[in-house]
Amino acid sequence: MATGRKLMRAIRVFEFGGPEVLKFRSDVAVPIPNDHQVLIKVYACGVNPVDTYIRSGTYSRKPFLPYTPGLDVAGVIEAIGDNVTAFKKGDRVFTTSTISGGYAEFAIAADDTVYTLPEKLDFKQGAAIGVPYFTAYRALVHSAHAKAGEIVLVHGASGGVGLAVCQIARAYGLKVLGTAGTEEGRNIVLQNGAHEVFNHREANYIDKIKKSVGENKIDVIIEMLANVNLSNDLNLLSYGGRVIIVGSRGPIEINPRDTMAKESSIIGLALYSSTKEEFQQFAAALQAGMEVGWLRPVVGPQYPLEKVVQAHENIIHSSGATGKMILLI
Ligand code: NAP
Questions:
Q1: Is there an atom of ligand 1 within 6 Å of 176 CB?
Q2: What 3-state class would DSSP assign to 140?
Q3: Is the distance from CB of 29 to CB of 107 less than 8 angstroms?
Q4: pLDDT of 5
Q5: Which of 47, 59, 224 is the pocket-test mutation for ligand 1 (most atoms within 8 Å of CB)?
Q6: CA distances, 100 to each of 33, 63, 267, 274 (Å)
Q7: Is 179 in the pocket of ligand 1 (CB under 6 A)?
Q8: Contact (CB, 8 A) for 192 and 171
Q9: Which residues 6+ apart lie within 8 Å of 138 measured at CB?
């Protein structure tokens, strides 16, 4: 409880654990931006699976307690700290990270993690850009070195990252195959750049993919659930094919021999291993996508801040993704 300072609504985590450790508070002090920081009035914040891993305390990066989760905010600059030249009060922005936490009415972010949000995208869409699109771009362009004309399988295409990969891959001239677990998800995947879509809950869908494109024809796989799919992925790849592991929630057994004849690559990805220069490069490509119009974030389930516990339950135990989950602040 703070006195003498403006107060705001925010989610606070006082101990690591299940979704129930997310506590709604209306007496959190509005933070003040320091050097090279901005204060953003938050209208929407993306919910990312990583928010749940961090909250549970099992993730490699642990914040000091108590903390407010949330990386991808969209809103308006409320105030700037010293030495901020790129932004002024009133600018519409989105972020790829925050310092004080995005599940709140106001959030502090370092100025090099803040980007201009074009007028044609609303704040909900703005909250769906950060982690998903920067991850998608890193996976496809930086890690996989995907080239126009290649075939990409977006293994898990209906969520935040998957739809972003579909849009980018289509704009870059790849043939795009996606997978999703529900009919609604598959329709959204087809509307967002995929040429074909498959049901990853169907027993024989891998055979259907092979039947559609031929044996050993997939150049790049962007993998959202490697602990389930990695062995199958190796059997789908072309010679010189690459699997980029974006998501994995456990171990899996593979046969290393499956990588030998085709000289396949299995490449792990961590968005936050990107350098500042790489973030700037990804941002430039994505800004172009917003200007030209191929970057169109798909907003899925929306929850008010007070319902954050439900949001964290549902993003992990989803009955089927239909775009990016966001919190409305
Ligand atoms: P999301 O919005 O919750 O989407 C999850 C996706 O996984 C959905 O498309 C879902 O499809 C799909 N999926 C479910 N079962 C699957 C299966 N058997 N095979 C393939 N896909 C399956 O999550 P997200 O934000 O897109 O993130 C996806 C994953 O990437 C998460 O594990 C996240 O932690 C990770 N990630 C990692 C990084 C990094 O830096 N490495 C960055 C961002 C995200 P249906 O719901 O239609 O079944």
A1: no
A2: helix
A3: no
A4: 82
A5: 224
A6: 10, 11, 32, 21
A7: yes
A8: no
A9: 269, 271, 274, 278, 282
The stretches of 237-307 forming alpha helices (DSSP H) are: 276-292
Cα 171 to chain centroid, rounded? 18
158 Cβ below 6 A of ligand 1? yes
In the chain (329 residues long), the average pLDDT of successive 10-residue segments reads 78 98 98 98 98 96 96 98 98 98 98 98 98 98 98 98 98 98 98 98 98 96 98 98 98 98 98 97 98 98 98 96 98
- In this structure, how many other beta carbons lie within 10 angstroms of the beta carbon of residue 275? 8
- Our mutation pick for probing the ligand 1 site, out of 58, 138, 161, counting the most ligand atoms within 8 A of Cβ, is 161
User: What is d(CA 154, CA 139) in angstroms, rounded to the nearest whole number?
Assistant: 11
User: 273-317, pLDDT tens digit by residue?
Assistant: 999 999 999 999 999 999 999 999 999 999 999 999 999 999 999
Ligand 1 and 206: CB distance under 6 A? no
Q: Which residue's C-alpha comes closest to atom 12 of ligand 1?
A: 156
Which among 313, 304, 298, 248 is positioned nearest to 133, based on CA atoms? Answer: 298
Which residue's CA is minimally distant from atom 7 of ligand 1? 156
Is the CB of residue 135 below 6 angstroms from any atom belonging to ligand 1?
Answer: yes
Ligand 1 within 6 A of CB of 181 = yes
Q: What is the sign, positive or negative, of the torsion defined by CA atoms of 288, 290, 291, 294?
A: positive
**Six token digits for residue 116:** 């201009």
What 3-state class would DSSP assign to 323? coil
Strands 37-46 and 324-328: antiparallel
